[in-house]
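Model it.
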Amino acid sequence: MPTRELEVVPKSFDDASLRAPDVARGERPCCMGDKCICVWLARWRHGEDTELAFIGTEFLLPSQRAAFDAGGAPALPPTPGKCLVCTRYATTFMYRLARSDPAFRSNVRVPLTAFGNAVLEGDALPTHASPVHAADGYRREAMLFVDEAWADAPAARGPMGTFLFRPCVKFVSTHYAYVRDPGSDRPRLVQRGVGVGDDGDPHFRQPASSNPSTAAPRALASPTLRSRN
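Modeled.
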C-alpha cells in the first residue's frame, strides 16, 4: 500500500494561518474567493452584514512559508491555494466521499460547483499531517477518523492510502470562533477545544447533578463531534 511523506504542521502554525492575507507583503487570498468558508461561516452565525466575515489567507506549508519569507511573492506556488479552513473542508469532504462510495476513483477530479470554482483530486490529499497528543498538537477527537475497514476500498490502495498513516485534522464548524485581532482589530478565527493544552472541552456539557448516576441526560452542544464517518 503506497504512502507519501508529508510535512507535519504544529497547531501554533495553523493558529497563525487563520486570518486574512497581508496583501502588502504579497500574501494571496484563498482561491475560493467570496465562497471561502471563513466568509460564509461568519454570515451564518452573525448575520449577512457582519463585519467578522473575511477571506482567509492562502495556506502555505512550513517549507513554503519559509521560502516566501525569504523570497517574497515569486516564491509562492504557481497555482493559488485554499485557506486552512477550506483545505480542511475539502480534505474531509473528499475522504468521506471516498469512504462511502465503493466506485470512487481518487485520480478523477471532482468539481465543487456548489461551493466555488475549485477542483479537487483525491491523489493530492492529504496535503499535510498534524501531531496528535503531543506538544503543540491536537486531541485525538479533532482528527479525521479513518477506520481500518477502509483499507480494503480501492481508493485506499492508491495515494489516498496516506490517510491511514498520517493524521489529519477534520473540518467541524464548531471548532472555530471569530475574534478581533488585538493588534489590528481585524477579524480572525481561533480554534476551540481541539488542542492538547486546551482547558476543558466546550463541545460537551457537564451533568446536571454532581452524582453522575442520578444526573438527567443533557444534549450535546456539538452533535457533529460524535459522528466519526
